[in-house]
Structures are given as C-alpha cells and as structure tokens.
Design brief:
- The protein has a single domain, classed as Ribosomal protein L13 (Ribosomal Protein L13p, Chain: A), CATH 3.90.1180.
- Helix content is 40%, strand content 19%.
- It is built from six helices and five strands; from the N terminus they run E-H-E-H-E-E-H-H-H-E-H.
- Strand 1, helix 1 and strand 2 form a beta-alpha-beta unit.
- The longest helix is centred in the N-terminal third of the chain and has 13 residues.
- It is globular.
Length: 124
C-alpha cells in the first residue's frame, strides 16, 4: 500500500496546533475509510521547526522531568532549553502524547520526519 506524503511548514505555527494536525494525519483520520484498528495514516514531513512558535510564558514555565531512580536523580529541562538544543524533541513529545497509547503508536511515530531547515534547502 502506497502511503500519502504530507508536507507541513512549521513556520509561525503554534506547537499545540501543529502537533494536533500532525497526529491527525499520522492516525489517518483524513481518510474516508478510517478505522481505529488499522494503521492507514500518511507519512508526514515537517519543515522549519526552528521557526515554530511557542507562547513566551510556556517557554519559561513548562518543563519535562526525568528521574534516574537514584537519590537526587531528578532532571529538569525547560521548554526554553529544549527549543535551543533541539526543537525536534519538543515537537516529537507533543505529537507522541497526542496519539493513542496503543501498539500502533510506535509505528505511527516512525512515519514522522522533522527537519530544522526549509523545504527548498532539504531538496537540494
């Protein structure tokens, strides 16, 4: 089965709205023959992730936490740090959290491609 390829430009798009649209296409809800138990979603390619927009207050206040399991093993990364390091991590986790938590989630996330540069720079 040949999958549809959808390209999305992330320039000046808010993180939440962008992640919602990506999850919609990855699930295949744009298909008239959509069924929950089938993985008929499209391949999604997102460009200009560096120019993605996030509300300034959320950039400062929101954070992701991890714990190693050891004492004093709590690690915190704010959205500001993630935007500077690699905004792909921020978008990846937002899309992943919007998809249903089932056995198809990993397969759907494999079809998501994210590029920091523009569409024309990627083609050359």
């Amino acid at each position: 089965m040949e999958r549809e390829v959808i390209t999305i430009d992330a320039q000046n798009r808010r993180l939440g709205n962008l992640a919602t649209e990506i999850a919609y296409y990855l699930e295949g809800k744009n298909n008239p023959a959509f069924e929950y138990h089938k993985d008929d979603g499209a391949r999604v390619i997102v460009y200009n992730i560096d120019m993605m927009s996030v509300h300034p207050r959320k950039v400062r206040q929101r954070a992701y936490y991890r714990h190693s399991g050891y004492r004093k093993g709590l690690q915190k990364k704010t959205w500001e740090d993630l935007m500077q390091e690699d905004p792909r991590q921020l978008l990846h986790s937002a899309v992943e959290r919007m998809l249903p938590k089932n056995k198809l989630q990993n397969e759907r996330m494999k079809r998501l491609e994210m590029h920091r540069e523009s569409h024309t720079a990627h083609d050359n």
